Write the structure tokens for this entry.
Amino acid sequence: MSGAGATHTVGRDRLLDPRVSRAFGWASLVSLVALGLFGLWGAPEDATQKEAQRLMYLHVPSAWLAYLAFGVTALASLLFLWPRTRSMVWDRLAGASAELGVLFTALTLILGSLWGRPVWGIWWAWDARLVTTAVLFFLYLGYLALRRIPTGDPVGAGKRNAIAALIAFVDVPIVHFSVEWWRTLHQKATVFNPQLSAHIHGVMALTLWIGVIAFTILYVYLLDRRYRLAALEDEMEQREVDLAIAARVGTPRDGGTAPDPVEVGR
Amino acid sequence: MTLAVHLADADYGWVYVVVGWSLTGAVLAAYFGRMALRIRRAEKSLPPEPER
């Protein structure tokens, strides 16, 4: 960030170089089109699930992205809590990634329900995997609500957010291992399960991989965009505060020497 | 609703596929579109980057 005074709480205003970000945008578009072609036409119909199985090409990558997004949120929160690495960049990154995680967890639940109706015969079951995933969704929804509570102490708010994110992350391994720990309607791990040694049709496996890769590229692109939006909103807020202080004190806004809240918070 | 669900249960799994894929596309497009608009609006309301 350039400029003085107004930028002391803003920090890095972009996650990726604009050209790299654009490249990710185009790559996600191309890979999503490929996923659509393979998922809806290229991959054959499943022998028992029939057409409904095509929902798995979205459901599995969405679930993977939820794990990834909440993992990034937890890592960024740890980096914020650690005094040596504390920066508002980590707090902003944690918030941006959590929002994407909530979005993809919601998609995971909806797509799973749409698949469950024709295959299981029910929209929803009080099954350990489903319930812990729903709990995960509400935990991070609460985390996002917590982030919106206004405060005059960015560092204090950042610490509070980081602790909440780490508490919520406890549910991620519970979701993952729920199918091992409890008897569930939801199937156990399939693709990488050595005991099962699942034989997946080549095009089906390829389509699943395209989905995982396409969604991961999309995540990086959306994370960059969401981070950019958060940085701009922080900057707008900071400028408003600086203008209000300048109007009250009668000094030019660029002459402000307000301390860095991150430095103060150490 | 009951009839639709019954039909879909039998051999009309593609109905759920169409709904699921369309919904996912619409949600992602709406999320991205809204974010792009908010970014553009915020960039317009701030002075050009070299002046900040």
